[in-house]
Amino acid sequence: MRTSSGAVRGRTEDGLTVFRGIPFAQPPVGDARFAAPRRPRPWDGVRDAYDFGPPPPQDLGAAGTAGPPDVPGGDDWLTVNVWTPAPDPAAHRPVMVWIHGGAYKMGHSGSPAYDARRIAADGDLVVVTLNYRLGMEGFAHIEGAPANRGLLDQIAALAWVQDNIAAFGGDPDQVTIFGESAGAGSVAALLAMPRAAGLFRRAVAQSVPGTFFSAALAADIGTALAAELGLRPTVEDLSEVTPDQLVTAGQALAPKMPGNISRWGQAAPTVTPYAPVVDGEFLPVTPWQALTSGAARDVDLLVGHNRDENRLFTAMAGKLGQIGEDRASAALRLYAPGGEAAYRAAFPDASANDLYERVQTDWLFAMPSLHLAEAHLAGGGRSHVYELTWPAPAFDGALGACHALDIPLLFGTFQESLALLQFGGAEPSEEALALSARFRSSWTAFARTGDPGWPAYDTGQRLARVFDAEPAVAPYPEETSRRLWEGYEFAPLPLVDPKA
């Protein structure tokens, strides 16, 4: 198989041809460090594309659950992987390009959780997964470097798809990008980025985080990150330290962030010092502003979230079901539009724990996702909305439909990464397998036709697909929250008080 940079050799696996670790850009090291991605250097002969490329330097997370598997080391981080039913240039199959999540600081396309063979086989289409720079390398504000380097990497990968995917049996005019969590935030950003225009036809955004940084906030957090190393946030200073040292700086700052609410506002408790930056150049405005103005009206959008997103985080913190009035009140004061009283009045029978979970789920994922659909509709685009309400089976269902539960359901990878927590290591039930198949058939139908199998969203009926043991099409289930957040603007998170 010949690409624009050289020939590659894949392997046949389970009726598919799989290529791993194909460079779409040069290693971002040396004089390419902190720069926009550069086209890969050509190679002679045939390159074996058998193994995933090395993961970008990253924070492995508190439990290591989202960390990379045992893969070769090296600095060739910017690679793609391709699953195809047949590498036939005449096939013209739809293409799905997966962008992984991980709080913009962790994750790797080689994770077994993102094994795309079931999607490619069930949908009879080509699936591409990609790496992008994370943490300080990809998202921190660094003087002398372009903003949003991780997003620029994603654009470079999508350009590679345009140039090369036909040889793998894909149709470059039928590309769907899909991502979850930070991957969905990336999808939303790509919809708004002029450099990404024309690189994809459809987009799937699973649990869109509403956290986009203003330039001032990104600069202030970037200064704090560099200060952890005793340095300035400049290319000159930071080029002198290793990527692993930058990871360490992020790990050192994250637990200190909640103490900076007076300075960094809503961003502080997320303990994630990275997000796409509304820099006025590569990302001129937020995705919600861009879509309202019609920036992506020709792109079909499928967007949704899980009912109980935040329960994953309280479970991982060992606080599941244990949030008291003080923490609930603090969260309501910080996040609830209209203030604490509005949420308490809207949910009069909710416990402190439930109010805490609800407002955090609404602020971080549910309402940003719904508002993205409504912004796209306002700009002349077409959106389909869903909510996952089926509870994870572990802990007798106490996790609910928590964050990232859609990943094992979509990929069918029930024994990997966070699925081990959500499914308790048990074999999936027939009910889970049926729901998993339903996810894949909906996503691949959308990639093929723009119709996932239920009506497009509108502001009259507000119909959505509810994914549960018995799926249904019904008015958007979180109507109480929707009304509370009606008219709210997901603006770039500000630097609240630089003197605090």
Q: What is the secondary structure topology, with strand pairs?
A:
Elements: E1 7-9, E2 11-13, E3 16-23, E4 46-48, E5 79-84, E6 93-99, H1 117-123, E7 126-130, H2 135-138, H3 149-164, E8 170-180, H4 182-192, E9 202-206, E10 213-214, H5 215-227, H6 235-238, H7 243-253, H8 261-264, E11 277-278, H9 287-292, E12 300-306, H10 311-316, H11 325-335, H12 340-346, H13 352-378, E13 383-388, H14 406-411, H15 419-423, H16 430-449, E14 463-467, E15 472-475, H17 479-484
Parallel strand pairs: 1-4, 6-7, 6-8, 8-9, 9-12, 10-11, 12-13, 13-14
Antiparallel strand pairs: 2-3, 3-5, 5-7, 14-15
Helix pairs in contact: 1-16, 5-7, 11-13
InterPro entries: AB_hydrolase_fold (IPR029058), CarbesteraseB (IPR002018), Carboxylesterase_B_AS (IPR019826), Type-B_Carboxylest/Lipase (IPR050309)
EC number: 3.1.1.-
Enzyme class: hydrolase
